[in-house]
From TrEMBL:
<feature type="transmembrane region" description="Helical">
    <location>
        <begin position="128"/>
        <end position="146"/>
    </location>
</feature>
<dbReference type="Pfam" id="PF02653">
    <property type="entry name" value="BPD_transp_2"/>
</dbReference>
<dbReference type="InterPro" id="IPR001851">
    <property type="entry name" value="ABC_transp_permease"/>
</dbReference>
<protein>
    <recommendedName>
        <fullName>Autoinducer 2 import system permease protein LsrD</fullName>
    </recommendedName>
</protein>
<keyword id="KW-0997">Cell inner membrane</keyword>
<keyword id="KW-0813">Transport</keyword>
<feature type="transmembrane region" description="Helical">
    <location>
        <begin position="21"/>
        <end position="43"/>
    </location>
</feature>
<keyword id="KW-1003">Cell membrane</keyword>
<keyword id="KW-1133">Transmembrane helix</keyword>
<feature type="transmembrane region" description="Helical">
    <location>
        <begin position="166"/>
        <end position="191"/>
    </location>
</feature>
<keyword id="KW-0472">Membrane</keyword>
<feature type="transmembrane region" description="Helical">
    <location>
        <begin position="97"/>
        <end position="121"/>
    </location>
</feature>
<feature type="transmembrane region" description="Helical">
    <location>
        <begin position="260"/>
        <end position="289"/>
    </location>
</feature>
<feature type="transmembrane region" description="Helical">
    <location>
        <begin position="221"/>
        <end position="240"/>
    </location>
</feature>
<keyword id="KW-0812">Transmembrane</keyword>
Length: 326
């Protein structure tokens, strides 16, 4: 049993409701156990490694999305931003530019788009939903105008994050997995151990109270969007490592998948509550669910129904939890 702020002991149910990452972790364990018992291949090392690899790019996008949702914002254009960065990297290399320069240009472009989003949200005071919906349309069109077709990538630096190694002789890992893990650790530290992280939570929880307490709300929100853009740029590098082919039509539903991972992971859509650990677990839940249902022979459409139900249940639980805390 945990202890509440007023010194009384909380029930296990109350502890789960108050700790965003606990519920998703329990759900992930239950899903793994169920699919391990109901299918013959789910628990194989190759399949578990594939599950982690499949969650890599969306999980990284979800990391940036988490920062934005913590400030009560949302980013519908994160996947389009990532795709455009992959195209920039691939086209520049095909055109003869050094791979390191193409990589920097792609990451910088994604970061600048994040900065532009932050400026529109804070300085022009447009709703994040409208800004990122407009950017989603613009970036998708720009990507198709820029290339029109997929661009194969053969450069070793751009595909380096897809390099495979084996732990203990059998567990397959890629450099992209290691980079993603390091990024989650860095963001976790920044949110939980620095003043900046406290400002992010304060702005998302009650922006006016945060402003009155001396926090520069505008600078905090712009900083969040810039960091999210940087993360999307690195997600683009991971995408080229996983599939060495930049495609303007790739990751069409990844923006919604990243929001799903964040919400299922326990981060509140209303801002000010959540954790990157929950997001990591949320991304794994989405991938485990799809992998397990596929191996059980369930049609894709029913998988989408199950995912949608999970999102609605997670948001309803979040609203219920916030109501109890007030």
């Amino acid at each position: 049993m945990a202890t509440t702020a007023n010194g009384t002991r909380a029930s296990f149910g109350e502890y789960v409701l108050r700790t965003p990452a606990v519920g998703p972790t329990i759900a992930l364990i239950v899903a793994v156990v169920v699919f391990s018992l109901s299918t013959s291949t789910f628990l194989e090392l190759d399949n578990l490694s594939l599950v982690v690899e499949q969650s890599l790019v969306v999980g990284t996008m979800a990391l940036g999305q988490t920062l934005i949702i913590l400030t009560a914002g949302i980013d519908l254009a994160n996947a389009a931003n990532t795709v455009l960065a992959t195209l920039l990297m691939a086209k520049l290399v095909v055109g003869g530019a050094p791979a390191w320069l193409a990589l920097l240009v792609g990451i910088a472009a994604a970061t600048l788009i994040g900065a532009l989003t932050g400026v529109l949200v804070t300085n022009v005071k447009l709703p994040p939903f409208i800004v990122t919906l407009g950017l989603l349309t613009i970036l998708t069109a720009v990507s198709r105008i820029y290339t029109g077709e997929s661009v194969p990538v053969s450069d070793s630096l751009l595909s380096w994050l897809g390099t495979r190694r084996y732990l203990f002789g059998g567990i397959e890992v890629t450099y992209g997995m290691t980079v993603a893990l390091l990024m989650f650790l860095v963001v976790w530290y920044a949110l939980n151990k620095t003043g900046w992280g406290k400002h992010v939570y304060a702005v998302g929880n009650e922006p006016e109270a945060a402003r009155l307490s001396g926090i520069n709300v505008r600078r905090t929100v712009i900083g969040v969007y810039i960091i999210a853009g940087l993360i999307y740029g690195i997600a683009a590098w991971q995408a080229l490592g996983r599939v060495p082919n930049a495609d303007p039509n790739a990751y069409q539903t990844a923006n919604l998948d990243s929001i799903t991972a964040v919400v299922i992971g326990g981060t509140s859509l209303f801002g000010g509550r959540g954790s990157v650990l929950g997001t990591l677990v949320g991304a794994l839940i989405v991938t485990v669910l799809r992998s397990g249902l596929t191996q059980a022979g369930i049609d894709d459409l029913y998988q989408n129904v199950a995912t949608g139900i999970l999102v609605i249940a997670a948001v309803a639980l979040d609203r219920f939890t916030r109501g109890r805390q007030r």
